[in-house]
Design a protein that fits this description.
Oligomer: single chain
Number of helices: 10
Strand content: 15-25%
Order of helices and strands: HEEHEEEEEEHEHEEEEHHHHEHEEEH
Helix content: 25-40%
Radius of gyration: 31 Å
Structural class: alpha+beta
Distance between the termini: 102 Å
């Protein structure tokens, strides 16, 4: 006899009686009185959590996509690198030319006074750096604005006509003559290094970014004053607001090595700015993230191929320049004296440096004479 169909089996259910339900012998009552079809509470809770997680992911995805297109729409893609002539071959990794200009665009007279910018017409480059981002870690190389370079022939950014060469001059003269495209052309011609992307920010944008994140913490080994830049700092740890930060990165008259010491301070500050901005308290807080991004994007000028993703890569590479274990390196362009008061680049070290960058190798070149 089949024990599973024997009516003497306590678990036997006569088909005529229909399916088991609450209250029948041998069938435990269902929780909540929902009957046989009820889903166990644990399973219901699991499904609720899953729905919440899916909802959160969808919201974050939509917000991320919206933020990307919002940021991309604010970028001023004014620099056309396709118009730069006689370019060197691209190597491994990505090279950004990062420029701080003395643009006073959009600043009121009071802002110019507060930030000690003066009221000079036009724009000049206050700082220039090459950031190489590659497999061997990021390398940040400051280019002193008083570097002695040869301004080569170039295509005019407005006329489209080929002009020059213009001979020896200061590096920042290239920007003053014909803007970003001639600056890129001059850097490439004098280094042999291909520039992939260009990013430039003016005085007010720089100060606004610092203020948007609530200031930047810096520790100074020595205090210094520079009346022309509006700098007055004591030694020790301090939090710099936008006005103080701009004075710090512009100061050069307070230092014996002038522009070379200033570029080192610029590197330290930019690394600190990037490190303190790329934190969860900023990136995950929309009330901090969007004002910070807006402050920078409003005055940022980039090349036509730049996008928010590449900007983020540039930003995090700068953060890692002096980070522990990142393999990053910061340095000045190696020099070997001066010509007519302008700094002369060390051609032997320059050749080795460019070769290492093009091959994406660790940089072993020193900027010490």
């Amino acid at each position: 006899m089949n024990s599973w169909t024997d009516s003497r089996n306590p678990d036997f259910q006569n088909p005529a009686q229909g399916p088991p339900h609450n209250g029948h012998p041998g069938v435990p009552p269902q929780q909540g009185g929902g009957g046989y079809a009820d889903v166990p509470p644990r399973r219901r809770r699991g499904r609720t959590v899953l729905r919440v997680l899916v909802g959160v992911v969808v919201v974050l995805l939509v917000a991320s996509v919206a933020t990307y297109f919002w940021a991309d729409s604010k970028l001023r893609k004014d620099v056309d690198l396709s118009q730069v002539i006689d370019r060197p071959e691209a190597g491994d990794g990505t090279n950004y030319l990062i420029v701080g200009s003395d643009s006073r665009e959009g600043m009121s007279d009071q802002q110019k006074k507060d930030l000690h910018t003066g009221s000079a017409d036009g724009k000049r480059t206050d700082s220039m750096m090459i950031l190489h981002d590659g497999a061997s870690g990021p390398t940040l190389i400051s280019l002193p604005r008083d570097s002695n370079v040869t301004i080569p022939k170039f295509r005019g950014s407005e006329s489209g006509d080929v002009k020059g060469p213009l001979g020896d001059n200061k590096l920042n003269a290239a920007y003053a003559i014909d803007g970003p495209q001639l600056l890129v052309r001059t850097v490439e011609s004098n280094t042999g290094l291909h520039i992939d992307h260009y990013a430039e920010i003016g005085f007010s944008g720089f100060a606004d970014i610092v203020d948007a994140i609530g200031g930047v913490d810096m520790t100074l080994d020595k205090g210094f004053k520079d009346k022309q830049a509006g700098a007055d700092f004591e030694a020790g740890q301090q939090t710099m607001n936008g006005q103080q930060a701009l004075a710090f990165v512009r100061s050069r008259h307070a230092f014996a090595a002038s522009d070379l010491d200033r570029t080192k301070n610029q590197q330290k500050f930019l690394s600190a700015l990037a490190s303190q901005t790329a934190t969860p308290s900023t990136l995950l807080n929309p009330f901090t993230l969007y004002p910070t991004m807006g402050a920078g994007l409003d005055t940022l000028i980039v090349d036509k191929d730049m996008n928010p993703y590449l900007l983020a890569k540039m930003f995090f590479a700068m953060k890692d320049v002096t980070g522990t274990g990142s393999g990053g390196k910061s340095m000045n362009m190696p020099t070997s004296g001066s010509v007519g008061g302008n700094l002369q680049w060390d051609q032997g070290k320059l050749k080795q440096l460019v070769e290492q960058l093009n091959n994406d190798e660790p940089v072993t070149v020193s900027d010490t004479p």
